Amino acid sequence: MTGSDDRPPGPLPRSVRTALDAMCNTSERRWTVAELAELAGVSGRTLQRHCMTFLGKSPQEIMRDRGFDCARREFLRALPGTRVMDVALRCGFTHFGRFSIGYRQRFGETPSETISRQMRLAAGLKSRWQGGRTSCDEPMIHLGLIEADPSIRPRMDDIADEIAVAMMRIGLPVAAEPRSARYQLVGAVRGTGRGQRLLLRLIDRHGGRQIWAHRIDDPVGASADIERLAAGVVGSLQPGLRAVEIDQVLGRPLAELGPRELALRAMPGVLSLDEAGNARALELLDRALACHPSHALSAALAAWVHAQRVVYHFTADIREDRARGLELARRAQTRSSDPTVLAVVGTALTLLDELDGAALVIQKALAANGASAWAWSRSGWLDVYRGDSDSAIERFKIALDLAPQDPLAFNSTIGIGCAYFYAGNYAAAARWQARGLAEHPSAAWVHRTLCPAYVLTGARPEAGRSLGALRSSYPDLTLSQVQLGMPPLQQTYRDLILEALSEAGLPD
């Protein structure tokens, strides 16, 4: 659905710019170097040299990369009946076997797996709750006209209308007039043909600064499902808007903050998934609930904090934190139908081994907001705990597709690793968990499953370093404590982890 501008920053020779523009605007054509050189007005050798000097790639490599990126964009918004061969041809590939191998090497999955995932996302969006509601707690957003050529103006108006509907469905109030809104969402179409892209920006009207941006490639193309484009916008917008709202309360005195502001201020600590952040968040949320016991978001976040204390070894009294977490989760669940609150409640219930209740809550969250990366990720964890690795990986990747910059994206990456572990692919399990840990180094609890993955692949040096990192963060940790604080994994999975940790050297 989205992508960053693939034109490199900084000055480039005219020859390279001309060649890039030609390749960008005609992704289905396989240019020869001679054709590009003639178009750019230089010799083939000069174009080769300029591309290697300024881009580090030959023209052929650039065309291949752009072709794969083109195919990826089409698969990420695939409609029913999409055929891999048709997409490959449109993106300049004629050898389908080589295309599939190269695609898998580049993106870690087959084209069919990408399409299957998008069909599941599309089904989730179609089943969304259809009622309309807005939240008085959320900031008002005005959606302005999208700048575009008159020939595609109706299409852009349809996209703008669908974005507005998607925002209202999840409780974001849409203002009719700019003067009544805190933020303004503006857009413009750039480029021509298949190289067209819709650039969206969210502007803080108080300061005039841009706080979020999003790009949609080929918004007029036949494969552009407007409903899914809007879902991608909302999925990306939510974490960006949340980050801005958090920034606005960080510098204010605590005495001035109401329950929502206190919950926002606590959220970075909750999302950190580390012990120091957990403690900071708990203090703020206890303050909010002391004055406003019925505030649903505060109660939901506090439930998640107590669940973290249980499963990440942040507490010496597991029973007390488990009971407190369940009480707060149920309190929040009865007081709100907001999809964010429901996603948080579902997360807490999952970690506290209330899987059936968590599944119902997450189902409601996705029905209310099919673009909720948090809810899709949590549904992936539910699949991990139930032993459905394929479905889990698919759901985690949907979450990553929707909001790759979300602070919790690393947890979906780790989830993919855990799903591979359960499937017996320990090398992939180690690779994905190590990637998630690199994205969030303070999440030392990941070593509980990363170390066993290394053990089971025979990577002894890596297993030793992983265990050392785990014991450095938890000096008194034992196998029995790991077992007590372990998430609700199936027994065979638990046994395998504990045996591997014992083999690596964790004491009883």
Provide a compact summary of the structure.
This protein is an alpha/beta fold and 508 residues long.
What does this protein look like?
It is a single chain. With 508 residues, this protein is of the alpha/beta class. It is built from 23 helices and five strands. The chain has a five-stranded mixed sheet, with helices on one face. Helix 10 runs parallel beside helix 12 (296-311) and helix 12 packs parallel to helix 14 (339-351).
Order of helices and strands: HHHHHHHEHEEEEHHHHHHHHHHHHHHH
Poorly predicted regions are 1-7, 127-134
Structural class: alpha/beta
Distance between the termini: 49 Å
Largest sheet: 5 strands, mixed
Task: Estimate the strand proportion.
Answer: 5-15%
| Continuous helix count | 23
Which strand order spans the largest sheet, edge to edge or round the barrel?
A: 2-1-3-4-5
Helix content range? 55-70%
Rg for CA atoms: 24 Å
- Secondary structure tally: strands: 5
Can you give the mean pLDDT? 86
Q: What form results from the Cα inertia axes?
A: globular
What brief labels describe this structure?
508 residues, alpha/beta, 23 helices, 5 strands, 63% helix, disordered N terminus
SSE map:
Layout: H1 14-25, H2 33-40, H3 44-55, H4 59-75, H5 84-90, H6 96-107, H7 111-126, E1 141-147, H8 153-169, E2 174-175, E3 183-190, E4 197-204, E5 210-217, H9 226-250, H10 259-272, H11 275-291, H12 296-311, H13 318-335, H14 339-351, H15 355-368, H16 373-386, H17 389-402, H18 409-423, H19 426-439, H20 447-457, H21 460-473, H22 479-485, H23 491-504
Parallel strand pairs: 1-2, 1-3
Antiparallel strand pairs: 3-4, 4-5
